[in-house]
Specification:
The chain contains no helices and 33 strands. The protein is an all-beta fold. The relative contact order is 0.10.
């Protein structure tokens, strides 16, 4: 089926906000007659329908999970997994292929997400041997660097990577060598030429989740000690020198840094706000229904935090949410600004972000919603 046959229309419909008795909201809706399998979120979200990106018929993948959208917006990676390798095809939004990169990998492992440096026109990938390789936009290898000297591969290894200010930040968890059981976690910082600037051991535990602040100043880790049964997960925050600045025995799904002092932790059924100066939360928000879970939290970079929750369901093995609700909170005190019920629409995971002009974008199975919210005055987070 060609995309020209899909029916789309833009309407304005009222959605009633549930907090108090505020006026009804005008929500712009872009509807689809064929279900969307996944949203690639940006300021102009793109839907994946039948394995293709809507409007770019040249970009097609065998699974919706095998297309990555680069943070820079106009580039995509189409992933083609094989038994012993993964092929990454760098493609522009217009469908023009720029590069093909081949990475040694095991098909039973999660597909690594590449990093893209648009300024220097470089692509970075980490292989199963713990090496980072840089490629140019023609797919030619520029450099390769072993991130740690004692790396041991297992199927339980984890790694996380991000980029800020031309620095590559990598967290690796892998087994300790010798007779000692368990994992260790290393923090490695490189420049865009492949020179290692810092290599810091962080913990004698395995990192299960990681989050980097946008400016690269802080790194948050959720760590687990598999050698001690029943031990609660531990969350730690480190500065960019590898010094620990905060610790608490809790787990997290996501962490958002609000500024140099405050951050927000998303768990399955609650969201907590913390300061680096204290382990006691500043405020807590819980799910509205015991059957709900929080899918995502977002921050507008100023004063507003968005949270979306709903009841999880599955269709053909893929996750969606029903009875979804969008809640907007003041980032400083957690006061509820607005709460919007999405009704019968099926919300798709991670299809939630702020856009310009005080709008929240929400990607559903058959529609993209754009919800307008009112700016609120405040002087801090």
């Amino acid at each position: 089926m060609q995309f020209k046959n899909f029916i789309m229309f833009l309407t304005l419909v009222p959605i009633v906000a549930l907090s108090g008795n505020p006026p009804q909201k005008a929500v712009s809706v872009r509807s689809f007659s064929v279900p969307v399998s996944r949203w690639l979120m940006s300021s102009s979200p793109l839907p994946l329908i039948n394995g293709r990106i809507k409007g770019v018929e040249e970009i097609k993948a065998s699974s919706p999970d095998l297309i990555f959208k680069a943070e820079t917006g106009q580039y995509f990676f189409i992933v083609q997994p094989h038994r012993n390798r993964i092929d990454y095809i760098l493609t522009e939004k217009r469908g023009i292929r720029r590069a093909s990169i081949y990475l040694s990998w095991n098909i039973d492992l999660p597909v690594p997400k590449p990093l893209l440096n648009k300024v220097d026109r470089q692509i970075y990938l980490i292989d199963i041997g713990g090496k980072m390789t840089a490629y140019n936009f023609k797919g030619q290898r520029l450099w390769q660097k072993s991130l740690v000297e004692d790396y041991i591969f297992t199927y339980e290894n984890t790694y996380f990577a991000a980029m800020a200010h031309n620095r590559l930040m990598v967290v690796l968890s892998y087994p300790r060598s010798g007779r000692l059981a368990g994992f260790k976690t290393m923090y490695v910082i490189l420049n865009n030429k492949g020179r290692i600037l810092k290599r810091v051991p962080l913990a004698e535990m395995q990192a299960l989740q990681a989050a980097f602040s946008p400016d690269g100043k802080y790194l948050a880790l959720m760590l687990h000690n598999a050698t001690v049964p029943g031990l609660a997960p531990r969350s730690m925050i480190f500065d960019n020198m590898g010094s620990k600045v905060w610790q608490k025995d809790i787990g997290f799904r996501k962490i958002i840094f609000l500024n140099d002092s405050n951050f927000v932790v998303q768990q399955k059924q609650q969201v907590l706000s913390f300061s680096l100066q204290a382990v006691k939360s500043r405020w807590v928000q819980k799910v509205a229904d015991k059957n709900f879970i929080f899918d995502d939290i977002i921050f507008d970079g100023a004063k507003t935090i968005g949270i979306i929750q709903g009841k999880a369901g599955y269709k053909s093995g893929r996750l969606f949410y029903t009875r979804a609700r969008v809640s907007l909170f003041h980032s400083k005190d957690g006061n509820l600004r607005d709460q919007i019920d999405l009704g019968d629409r099926r919300y798709l995971p991670s299809a939630f972000r702020f856009a310009g002009n005080h709008r929240v974008l929400v990607g559903c199975e058959t529609a993209l919603l754009s919800i307008q919210y009112q700016e609120e005055n405040s002087d801090e987070n």
